[in-house]
From TrEMBL:
This is Ubiquinone/menaquinone biosynthesis C-methyltransferase UbiE. SUPFAM superfamilies: S-adenosyl-L-methionine-dependent methyltransferases (SSF53335). The lineage of its organism: Bacteria, Pseudomonadati, Pseudomonadota, Gammaproteobacteria, Pseudomonadales. It holds the Pfam family Ubie_methyltran. It comes from Pseudomonas coronafaciens pv. coronafaciens. GO terms for biological process: aerobic respiration; menaquinone biosynthetic process; methylation. The gene is ubiE.
Length: 256
């Protein structure tokens, strides 16, 4: 879907923010971004969202249907916000796997959760969302929060998530999306392309990573497109909920 070719023998390209790069290079470039921002990721989330990311994640947890004894896979789990909550919900008889392709983010998440005493029912796995290293029909719930837009082949990732879910299992995709009003869209553009890089420069001395993050949001499929992609991947009863006037959307699908 995102591929572009310059010639019959050329390597397919994909977007990295507003730039086109060879597909083989995108994962490495995304890794460099998150290696750069990992140490202050939580602080920047709070600053850039005004703490709203916590409310968005809370809503995702409420819609997850996770309960005692469940197995949950938290993809692109980063610093472990969702994993911590799911660990409490599934209890000692359940399991939560925090998976992230980026070793720096995974280390920050592991260290943070261990410091908070979260360990007994949590496993940390470095994994690619497009090729999840887990058995078929294994998890009751799979989540990916603010991570799908960084995946090169989103269709492959969605099919991989479907494969590891049990029949009746739920996928929740929490991601920045397209504002539902022109006024909000204009304000959000100004915020994203001026304020975000400025804060990145001031707090982390890295404006370019936050410029990429703003651009990656604009290149991500809109609400209806992502819904269609989930249906095409094999999910049933796909719905989405807009939050903060569509700045963020939560998609939910069920494995038949």
């Amino acid at each position: 879907m995102n591929d572009q070719r310059k010639g019959s023998d050329a390597e397919p390209t994909t977007h990295f923010g507003y730039k086109n790069v060879p597909e083989s290079q995108k994962a490495e470039k995304v890794a460099e971004v998150f290696h750069s921002v990992a140490a202050k990721y939580d602080l920047m989330n709070d600053l850039l969202s005004g703490g709203m990311h916590r409310l968005w994640k809370r809503f995702a947890i409420e819609l997850s249907g996770v309960r005692t004894g469940n197995r949950v896979l938290d993809i692109a789990g980063g610093t472990g916000d969702l994993t911590r909550k799911f660990s409490n919900l599934v209890g000692p008889t359940g399991q939560v796997v925090l998976a992230d392709i980026n070793a720096s983010m995974l280390k920050v998440g592991r260290d943070r959760l261990l410091d908070l005493g979260v360990s007994g029912n949590v496993e940390f796995v470095q994994a690619d969302a497009e090729k999840l290293p887990f058995p078929d029909n294994h998890f009751d719930c799979v989540t990916i929060a603010f991570g799908l837009r960084n995946v090169t082949h989103k269709e492959d990732a969605l099919r991989s998530m479907l494969r590891v879910l049990k029949p009746g299992g739920r996928l929740l995709v929490l991601e920045f999306s397209k504002p539902t009003s022109k006024l909000m869209s204009k304000a959000y553009d100004a915020y994203s392309f001026a304020f975000m890089p400025l804060m990145g420069k001031l707090v982390t001395n890295d404006s370019e990573s936050y410029r990429y993050l703003a651009e990656s949001i604009r290149m991500h499929p809109n609400q209806e497109t992502l819904k269609s992609m989930m249906v095409e991947a094999g999910f049933d009863r796909v719905t989405y909920h807009n939050m903060t006037a569509g700045v963020v959307a939560l998609h939910r699908g069920i494995k038949p």
